Amino acid sequence: MRVPPFNAVASAVVCVWIWAAVVSVNVFGQQSSTASPPRTTALQPALEASSEVVDYTSASGSLRLRGVLFRSGGAGQSPAIVFLHGGSGASDKTVATIGRTFVSKGYLVFVPFHRGLGLSAGSGEPLAARLAKEEESNGIPARMRLMARLLETELLDDALGAIDYVRRRPDVDSSRVAVYGHSQGGMLSVLAAARNAGIRATVASAPGAVNWASGPEIRDMLRTAAKNAQAPIFFLQASNDYDLAPTEQLALEMARVGKPHVRQVYSAWGASVQEGHGFGVQAPQIWGPDVFGFLSEHMKAR
Q1: For residues 173 and 9, what is the distance between their CA atoms, to the nearest angstrom?
Q2: CB–CB of 148/191 below 8 Å?
Q3: This prediction's pTM
Q4: What is the domain-level CATH number for residue 267?
Q5: Cα end-to-end distance, the chain, whole Å
Q6: Three-state DSSP state, 205
Q7: How many domains does the chain have?
Q8: Which among 26, 76, 172, 262 is least buried, having the fewest CB atoms inside 10 angstroms?
C-alpha cells in the first residue's frame, strides 16, 4: 500500500549538536582520540528517498505487522538495512534520521514496528505492558526473566520476519542485507546474528544497556549469541550511556572465539544518561563514517 510519507519523514530537518570527540576501540587495538569544537549541522539525504508503509509477517506467520520502507529510487537491486527499534518503538524523528542516513548511501531501509507498537499497534500486546504486569505480580527478577524469554521468542520472531521480508524483495540484493539495532533492538540484532538469518553484517547500538545489570538471564543469552554469531558485529555506545558493560563484554566474547567484530565507545553525547543512550539514533554524523566503513568491508557484492 503506497502512502505519502508522514510529517517527520517528509519534512523534518533534524538539527543536532555535534561533539566530534571519538574514542575508538576495535579488535586491532585502541585508536587515538580526536576532537573538534561543537557545531550545528542539518541532516540532509544525498538522494531523494521515497517512503511507504508496508505489511510484513512475523517469521512464524502468527502476526501481521507493519513498517516503513525507504527507497532511493535507483534502478536494480540495492543492499538493504533492517533497523530494529528500542523497547518503546521508534519516533518519527528516529525513523526519518535512520531512513535518510542509510538511503543517502544507497541502501534500501526497512524500519519494522514490533508487535503492539507504532504502526503495529493492535497486533499483539506491547512488551512494556506485559513486563509491567509481571513485575507488579512477581517482582523485578521475574520481569527480567520474562523479558529474556520474550526477546528470544516473540520479539526475535518479529525481527526475523522483517529480515526475511526484505531479503525476498525483488529490489534487494538478498546477499547484501544487514541489521542495525538500537537498545532492545540492539539485543535482537545480536540474537539474529546468531541465527544464520542470511545477514552479512550487524550493528548493535547500546544492546542491553538499560537491563544488563539487573538481568542475568539477558546477559547469559547475549553472551551465548555473541559467541555463536554468524555475521560480524559492530558494537557502539556513547561513554555516558547507562552501562558500557554490554559493548565491552559482548565484544570480548567474540574476541575469545575469533569472531570478526568492532567495538567503539564514543565521547559523551548530551548531558544525561538518557541522552547518551540515544546516541545510536541521534548522531549518525558521528558514528556514520565508522559504520559505513564497516558495512562496506563486510557487504561487498559477491
Answers
A1: 25
A2: no
A3: 0.84
A4: 3.40.50.1820
A5: 32
A6: strand
A7: 1
A8: 76
